[in-house]
Amino acid sequence: MKKTIAALSVHIVVVIVLICCVGLLGGTSGGEGQEKFTGELERNVTLRILENDTAIKQGYLKELLDAFNEQYAQYGIRAVDANMDQYTDLANDGPYGYGPDVLYQANDALMKYVDNKHIMPLPVEQLDCYNSVDEQSWQAYTRQVDDQSYVFGVPVNIQGPLLYYRKDLLPDNWQQSWDDDGDGVCDIVQYWTDMYRYSKQLQQGNLLTDSGAKRFGYMRSFMEPYFSVGYLYSYGGYTFGDNNTNPRDIGHSKGDSAKGAWVMRQLASVMDKRCIDDTVTVTAYSALASGEYFATVTTPDVYTTFVTEMKNAGYSDEFIEENLVTADMPKLPVSGDLEDESQGFVESRMMGGIQGYAISSYTKYPNAALAFVDFATSYRLIMRRNQLLGIVPARTDVAAEVGGLSEIICNNLSQGNIVVMPSISEVAQIWTPLQTFFQDLAKDPFRPDDSMDFKYDTLDKIQQRLKEVDEQIYSAIFTLA
Question: Cα-Cα-Cα-Cα dihedral of 219, 225, 227, 229, to 10°?
Answer without folding.
Answer: 110
